[in-house]
Amino acid sequence: MALIVDLVFQLLQMTLVIAVAPLLTGIVRATKSRLLRRRGPSLIQPYRDLIRLARKEAVVADSASWLFRFVPYLVFAATWVAAALVPTFATGLLFSWSADLIAIIALLGSARFFLALAGLDVGTSFGGLGSSREALFGALAEPAMIVIVFTLALVAGSTQLSTVAAYMASSFVGLRVSLGMALVALIIVALAENGRVPVDNPATHLELTMVHEAMILEYSGRHLAVIELAAMLKLVLYVSLIMCVFAPWGLAIADASVADRLLGAFLYLAKLAVAGVALGVFETSIAKMRVFRVPDFVGAALMLGFLGALLLFVSRTLK
Amino acid sequence: MSAETLFLSGDAALLGLAVTGGFAARKPLAGTLVYGGALAICAAMLVLALVELLGHANGEALVLPLGLPWIGAHFRVDALSSFFLVVINLGGAAASLYGLGDARHERSPERVLPFFPAFLAGMNVVLLADDAYSFLLSWEFMSIASWALVMAHHRESDNARAGYVYIVTASFGTLMLLLAFALLASPAGGYAFDAMRAAKPTPGVAALAFILALIGAGSKAGIVPLHVWLPLAHPAAPSHVSALMSGVMTKVAVYGFVRIVFELAGPVGWWWSVPVLAVGAGTALLGVLYALMQHDLKRLLAYHTVENIGIIFIGLGFALAFKVFGMPSAAALAMTAGLLHVFNHSLFKSLLFFGAGAVLSATGQRDMDHLGGLIHNMPRTAFTFLVGCAAISALPPFNGFVSEWLTFQAILLSPALSSWVLKILAPAVGALLALSAALAAACFAKAFGITFLGRPRADAAKHAREADRLVLAAMFVLAALCLLAGILPGLFIDALSPAVSAMVGGRMPAQAGIAWLSIAPIAESRSSYNGLLVFLFITISASLAASFIHRFASDALRRAPAWDCGFPDPSPTTQYTAESFAQPIRRVFGSVAFVARERIDMPGPGETRAARFELTLGDRIWDELYVPLIAFIERASLRLNRLQFLTIRQYLGVVFGALVTLLVVLASWP
Predict the structure, then answer these.
(1) Domain spans, chain A
(2) Could you write out the DSSP letters of every residue in B245-275?
């Protein structure tokens, strides 16, 4: 019986992240429009866009290979599996033990690897440009993420995200310098990984500084829809990750009642909305960086994360 | 018959094959005979080694009346050597299968066929050897056989230099090992490993032997800064030999290091792990940065071997640290991570070199900037190469991820070490490991993307043909093993445990009993990973998404010219190349590590000449370490050259002086 309940909640989680992903993007876009004194599209416009794209025929370049048509689904699947393993409103999901935080990062790394290949597949200069820049950003953001994991794992004594979240939610963690550094680093990594404003601009096309959009320039129709959805999912994943570790209020712990879980779900949606508005405000208030300033920015995250982990490694003897 | 006898007869059969190959190399079926025979022998020895490994072998030493008269030659198979025998014979069998398919492309079979089985035999005997003399003899035999294979195409430019640098470093490495063994052998001449295990060297002697072993075995494995020969020699050999050298011979070097440091050198000093970790992390990072700068596919792969050796040494370094500070289960975890990476790397590096060889046979090109678009004409090669790339980039659900994941888990245990140096070093090593793993993914996105994707950059790439069926078979077997070791890692971890416990005295919890075939290195609440489920989840959700969209939305598809923002350029030279792909990374890391300089010569207004872009890459280690060293040796030998032109009187004087000095030293020896 418990197994069935867990399975239901796991499936609910998987549908939930997909269902709210376009909404989060809609919230960010609406916030940005309002701050720019535009009326902006409605909150559900991303859903309409996805459906419209999915219904269109896909135009594929003559020089594209089988890999090009295969990659969108692979990227989507890897991102979805990763997102399904991050606690959103409850910990102790049925399959949360099948991959820990390091594996989740590696799954996102897989998605990036294949997307970079897709950028090179057609053989255009824009695709290569996007791929090579994405390779650089990824090569800096991924180790930053790993050192953040070091910090979290040493604080909570586990790399299992459910356990980390449960630890953060239940016991008195207190203010720790390491965790503060990890939070700042994690936010920087999240901005870089999702191609948000100081690093990349999701709203531009035909700009020399674009990264993610350059890689997927040749995609159209259903392929583009799937990739866009994967990008939205990734944003939800990072927001959920930050929330479940640094703001785990209302998170339903393993054996919580159904009512608790429902409450957790509502709180989670509220947290998502707050995060979406905050991201919109942040993006409007800051200018995009030159591409070669980005390594400094992401490198700062790496250094902060590293300092945090180092403090923990060294402070272990003092106890 | 004991396992040792069976293995030795297998090696004798390989040597016989080598002689046959030498005499019959020009005969039409010589390749089939030699590679077929090598395949059969390696497969038999692989099965035997698996039986020994799973049957927890701990054989008695077999003493043959060979070698030095008062020692004899000792041979023994234990858990550690049977694990490495599995690695070597698996790689050997795969390389033989590749050779069987690719033999007709070989221009000078008489330079390859005799040495290929000899090389395999040499590597096998190193693992069987149970005394210093046979170890060093077979080690040197292995070096010379592989040197001959490096020189197979000696008329190509650079190959002669590669062979020269290789033979010099190989001899230097053997000399270091010789000195290490000399220190460890008791003054009575206990050259058998049994005697060394029993002897208790003083800490100073043990430490010196450790340093010598690190240098000697490390130079063979390719640790920075002793790696300079590797990216020259490995690509110069025929591709299946490159696979053997990179995927397998470097592992023999790792074996030598583990054997000496963990077993023969006696009690481990507390600081031993520090140089191993520092060297491992530096090797990993520099190896992958060098690899990123390459545009020769085989050289890129060779530099990448350097990176993976670094990762293996990180695992071994943590194993040493945990062993010293009395944490046997953590030491077992780190050791398992290192040894599993040995196995994994032998799989995917062989696979990738086979892929590079198939490309070389099909197009005659190793330079990625003249390739491109091969996925259309060589779809199967491209698919297996992609699997290899994903595995080496540590992407789940493939095998490379498992060993790196285990290494990270070991690093997370290191705060419990009671040494300040290690506490500070451990997170730095972890960060460098993460950085090099991420750079590896970038490197292989480049290797696969530039070689196989895009549009063909030259005619040779446009008219390439799919590789031979046996070549493909060798690649598919290795690709399947990469996936298998990635989704069922528990099986492989359990198989390793006798070798691990023999070296560090602890073992990881048995993985076979864990539900759903997960792996959990310490406890399930701490960390667990299930490759099988990750693989299934990805497959199911990808097919679910695809079928849902095709069913309910649209499945129409139209082919059209590339969009490229409305300005597609028909010339394939406008694509990104190996250099331009790595340009952002070169700009971030290059100026420090490679003294990279870009010079743009832009014509002024009105001038009609073309603009020029020049890129120069230096090699810091070569320029600042080896060039002065070579200059010093040259000066010293010029000085010593005078010794050749003395009179007989002076020679007698020199001899007398030397004799007196030696006698004085001997008399004053404590």
Answers:
(1) 2-318
(2) IIIIIHHHHHHHHHIIIIIIT-SPPTTTHHH
Asked if B617 and B595 count as a contact pair (C-beta separation under 8 A), the reply is yes
Minimal Cβ distance to A139: which of B414, B442, B565: B442
For residue B449, give the nearest of A56, A100, A116 by CB distance: A116
**Hey, how many other C-beta atoms are within 10 angstroms of the C-beta on A209?**
17
Tokens read off for B249 = 């011979």
Q: What is the pLDDT of residues B467-494, one digit of tens each?
A: 999 999 999 999 999 999 999 999 999 9
Task: List the one residue out of A15, A59, A67, A72 whose CA is nearest residue A229.
Answer: A72
Where are chain B's structural domains?
1-261, 620-668
Tell me the pairing of strands B557-560 and B612-616.
unpaired
Interface predicted TM-score (ipTM) of this complex, two decimals: 0.95
**What pLDDT does residue A317 have?**
54
Kindly identify which residue of chain A lies nearest to residue B552, measuring between CA atoms: A55
Q: Indicate whether A318 pLDDT > 70.
A: no
Q: Tell me the pLDDT tens digit for each residue of B567-578.
A: 888 888 889 999
Residue B78 DSSP symbol: B
State the DSSP string of A181-234: HHHHHHHHHHHHHTT-TTT--TT-SS-TT-SHHHHTTT--HHHHHHHHHHHHHH
Contact assessment for residue A250 and residue A210, using Cβ atoms and an 8 Å cutoff: no
With contacts defined as CB-CB under 8 Å, which chain B residues touch A67? 375, 386, 453
CB burial of residue B667 (10 Å; 0-12, 13-18, 19+): exposed
**Residues A150-177: what's their mean pLDDT?**
83
Tell me the sheet residues that pair with B159. Answer: none
Q: How far apart are CA B92 and CA B116, in angstroms?
A: 10
* A to B CB pairs, distance under 8 Å: 296
pLDDT tens for residues B42-59? 999 999 999 988 886 666
Residue at B493: amino acid letter: I
